[in-house]
Amino acid sequence: MGAEAVLALLEATPESEACVVSLDGNQAVRVPLMQCVEKTKSVAAAMKETKWEQAVKLRGRSFERNLETYKMLTRIRPPKSVSDEHSSGGYRLAVMHAGAPCCGMNAAVRSFVRNVIFRGDTVLGIHEGIDG
Questions:
Q1: How many CA atoms does the CB half-sphere of 91 hold within 13 Å?
Q2: Which is more confidently placed, 16 or 26?
Q3: Residue 119 belongs to what domain range?
Q4: CB neighbours of 115 closer than 8 A, spacing ≥ 6?
Q5: What is the C-alpha to C-alpha distance for residues 59 and 63, in angstroms, rounded to an integer?
Q6: Is 127 in contact with 96 (CB distance < 8 Å)?
Q7: With b meaning 16 or more CB within 10 Å and e meaning fewer, what string describes 61-82?
Q8: Is the same domain home to 69 and 11?
Q9: Are residues 44 and 59 in the same domain?
Q10: How does pLDDT run across 19-38, given as a tens digit for each residue?
Q11: Is the pTM of this model over 0.70?
Q12: Cα 14 from Cα 83, distance rounded (Å)
């Protein structure tokens, strides 16, 4: 996005409309500044009227996906026990660390486990598996 912003500056003329460099999917795009301001105001108006779903949609696809992931990771209640008799017939996946602990692994494994449980599958932890 930085390179696209520099190109926008180099190509700008005094008559050019102000723009914001943003991402659309994986592509850097230029969006007119006033269009962004209007969209921001419409999000605020939707929230003021408690139209939450409309406000989320106005924020965009990435925001919507991130919100769904956040809800899934924070609201799921893990089962009290994991056993074959309570299994839903889905996949059985295992987590095993190899070698020394690494920064960020607790968060990564927690997200993985909650995703697996949310899907209805079973996750197992392997203790003292192998040396790295």
A1: 9
A2: 16
A3: 80-125
A4: 72, 73
A5: 6
A6: no
A7: eeeeeeeeeeeeeeeeeeeeee
A8: yes
A9: yes
A10: 999 988 789 999 999 999 99
A11: no
A12: 69
